[in-house]
Design a protein that fits this description.
Length: about 450
């Protein structure tokens, strides 16, 4: 195949994944800024939901998202990333828009949001597989960190856009327009995806030099990209300790990010008496700082690898250092106590939450790349799906827990959030210890 001399085209592909993830999180984050409206009593114009009702909504989405990721990963391994990611975005965009037309019943929103979760399930398996196909191992954590930062960028946009909709259109129409606008914007991305994306072996925009660089440490790449799609059994994947390493790494930590996404605005309102306007800036800042964590966290192992450290050791060393950072959120409720720190209390609390959010994104960037470190490309989508399912299950448990806690401690919500921040602080070191116990030394899978 004749290849034009286009350098660094892999980063164009990375930017497409970044925007897909941005729209993915923009669409899912809408409901966190509508919680106040959903939980406002019906006689005051809201839906009259309880905190537990809202938790059931987020848990239903998370459960279907979790259940479908394993299927989505398997499907994407079969049909390829180009079609797989496109279909995923189409489904989640359609059902994201559909949320605007189901009225106020909790059950109706749960059904539509569950279908929305089915679509969203394909984003990360497809994106991780794309990174495995388009980047050498030394750059995968950085590329993953960059596209994964789209989750924060999407959350930042939602932090400004959803409250704007509520202000501009009024509560009764604003919640509907928030779902419609955020769901519709993803279709623009499809144009660029179909125009620019192809597998490296088929891409006419990729130079031979860059193609060779992508596969510098992967002798089997050409065979895998030639169209041969060997069957990978889920049951066989579950016999490997490496699969369970990824499973527990996701299960123990993904729910923390769901907590930050869906409950941070509620925490700021109840802890500090903020209004829906007041929470815009601090949540925007938290998700913005998390972008730095995602990108910088992805670059740490690359720095260690350049200094001669083996890939897996560099990855686990970076993840251990990152796992120490969330310990900062143990002090959130102390520094966030108004009686101690007055008007600065919310500033200190948000600063500590920024550390926790940034650490999660740095952790996530490295967590995903452990799959392509240990498994051949043909299995990456399936293993990523298994891990994403585990993360979703962890997310369901976290959603149900925080909903129960905030209703139990309704008169003293700071107690509920103190418990949650303790969990947030300790989850990563627990996960790292389990992962290290399961796979103490790097051993790539070669018999699939």
């Amino acid at each position: 195949m004749s290849r034009p001399a286009v350098s660094h085209f892999r980063w164009v592909i990375c930017s497409l994944l970044f925007f897909a993830t941005t729209f993915n999180y923009l669409d899912r984050q809408v409901i966190s800024y509508l919680k106040e409206f959903f939980c406002t009593p019906a006689e005051q114009g809201g839906f009259g939901w309880s905190n537990t009702d809202f938790a059931h909504l987020t848990a239903a989405f998370t459960a279907f998202y979790a259940g479908m990721t394993i299927v989505a990963g398997w499907v994407i391994d079969k049909i390829g990333t180009k079609l797989g990611l496109a279909l995923s975005l189409i489904v989640w965009s359609i059902f994201g828009i559909a949320n605007a037309f189901v009225g106020r019943l909790v059950v109706a929103h749960m059904l539509v949001r569950s279908a929305f979760g089915v679509g969203e399930a394909g984003n990360f398996p497809a994106s991780i597989k794309t990174v495995a196909e388009w980047f050498p191992k030394r750059e995968r954590a950085l590329a993953t960190g960059i596209f994964n930062s789209g989750s924060n960028f999407g959350a930042m946009i939602a932090a400004l856009f959803v409250p704007w909709c509520m202000i501009h259109y009024g509560d009764q129409q604003g919640w509907k327009m928030a779902f419609i606008y955020t769901g519709a914007v993803g279709f623009i991305w499809l144009i660029f995806w179909f125009w620019l994306y192809d597998a490296p072996a088929k891409s006419k925009r990729l130079s031979q030099a860059e193609y060779d660089y992508i596969h510098v440490d992967d002798d089997a790449a050409v065979r895998e990209e030639s169209g041969e799609r060997a069957k990978v059994s889920w049951w066989k994947l579950l016999t490997y300790r490496q699969t369970w390493c990824f499973f527990f790494g996701k299960f123990l930590t993904d729910g923390i990010w769901w907590f930050y996404l869906f409950w941070l605005p509620d925490y700021l309102k109840k802890q500090f008496g903020m209004t829906k306007h007041d929470v815009m800036l601090p949540t925007f800042i938290v998700y913005g700082v998390a972008i730095i964590g995602s990108v910088y966290g992805g670059s740490i192992p690359m720095t260690l690898i350049k200094r001669g450290m083996p890939v897996y050791k560099a990855r686990m060393t970076a993840m251990f250092l990152i796992a120490l950072c969330p310990l900062a959120v143990l002090a959130t409720q102390y520094f966030g106590t108004v009686s101690h720190f007055g008007n600065m209390a919310s500033v200190y609390a948000v600063a500590l939450i920024c550390i926790g959010a940034a650490a999660h994104q740095a952790w996530s960037a490295n967590m995903f790349t452990t799959v392509s470190d240990m498994f051949p490309k043909k299995a990456v989508g399936s293993v990523t799906g298994i891990g994403a399912m585990a993360g979703g299950l962890g997310g369901v448990l976290v959603q149900l827990l925080v909903g129960s806690l905030t209703d139990t401690f309704k008169a003293n919500p700071q107690h509920a959030y103190l418990i949650m921040f303790i969990i947030c602080a300790l989850s990563y070191l627990t996960a790292w210890s389990v992962m290290k116990l399961l796979v103490p030394r790097h051993k790539p899978i070669t018999d699939l």
